[in-house]
Design goal:
Elements (H helix, E strand, L loop, with lengths): L3 E3 L22 H6 L3 E3 L11 E10 H11 L3 E4 L7 E9 L4 H7 L5 E9 L4 E9 L5 E7 L9 H10 L8 E15 L4 E13 L2 E4 L3 E8 L7 H8 L9 H9 L9 H20 L1
Parallel strand pairs: 2-4
Antiparallel strand pairs: 1-11, 3-8, 3-12, 4-9, 5-6, 5-9, 6-7, 7-8, 9-10, 10-11, 10-12
């Protein structure tokens, strides 16, 4: 796809080797706008951890994101880590050799899982995580802290994985790196968090794919309700709810051997959005 590019490696790279990442914020005005939000700390966010939740996702351009943030500022706090509002994440996803977890997702299996290790770059925290999407459309996340980001599953992580899921860790291998910059909003009035991800990039060996000019929003609530300033802005801007999986988009972009028919329309739509965002930036 047009999203895919090739890195110039100095040595042969495997899927688990950490790629050379560049944190290049696509929209410079974003940093100025985030400063207008009242801060909330990681500890204060504990009351809205929402590990068992309903997720609603949206895809928008960074220009639409700027408009949204300007409108909803009085209704949300913004996560601040050591004074930083734009926080950097790095994730490594694991799957079976034949991409069984990926295929469960793109074929719409009712019960599906993702296995990943995630590093919160700015807070120097790392976790090994399992996300379970249930047939009742709820998302349940289990995780354990790790001293460093996990790049190969150990006997310890395999034991934990068996305790919280039906998955066998000995059958999983690292498949895809993902990096992004995240803004986290916490509602002042409801049990609601909103994550806003920009600068999305995917890496597998020497290949890289980027989603330049786009933002992925995820509203996380303990119940499916509509009294949300963010959701009201989505309706006002006619931005419709969209399913989106970072792992699935990354795999489909960088691996030739996987099934893509069901996800191809989404990838073509993303490329059209990126083209429109690029055109807008050139004209303004």
């Amino acid at each position: 796809t047009k999203m895919e590019r090739t890195l110039q490696p100095t040595t042969k790279q495997q899927a688990w080797v950490l790629p050379p990442t560049v944190w290049a914020l696509a929209q410079p005005n974003l940093e100025n706008l985030t400063a207008s939000f009242a801060p909330i700390s990681l500890k204060q966010m504990d009351t809205v951890a929402l590990l068992n939740r309903v997720d609603i996702k949206f895809i928008m351009t960074t220009e639409q994101l700027l408009t949204t943030l300007a409108q909803i500022q009085p209704c949300y706090w913004m996560l601040s880590i050591n004074g930083q509002r734009l926080n950097h994440y790095r994730t490594l996803y694991f799957d079976t050799p034949n991409f069984g977890l990926y295929h469960d997702h793109v074929t719409g299996r009712a019960e599906r899982y993702k296995v990943r290790s995630r590093e919160y770059i700015d807070s120097h925290l790392a976790f090994f995580e399992v996300k379970h999407k249930t047939r009742k459309d709820r998302t349940i996340k289990e995780r354990i802290p790790t001293s460093d980001q996990v790049v190969q599953l150990s006997s310890e992580t395999n034991r934990w994985l068996r305790q919280v899921s039906p998955l066998d860790g000995s059958l999983l291998e690292p498949k895809l790196w993902n990096t992004f910059t995240r803004i986290t909003l916490v509602s002042r009035n409801y049990t609601e968090r909103v994550t806003l991800d920009v600068d999305l990039a995917f890496y597998a060996g020497t290949k890289v794919a980027r989603l330049d000019g786009l933002a992925i929003a995820e509203v996380k609530m303990d119940a499916n309700f509509g009294a949300s300033a963010f959701l009201e802005q989505m309706r006002a801007q006619r931005i419709r709810q969209q399913g989106f999986s970072k792992y699935s988009i990354g795999v489909a972009s960088l691996y030739e051997q996987v099934k893509k028919n069901s996800i191809k329309p989404k990838m073509l739509w993303l490329e059209k959005m990126m083209k429109g965002a690029s055109q807008y930036e050139r004209n303004n």
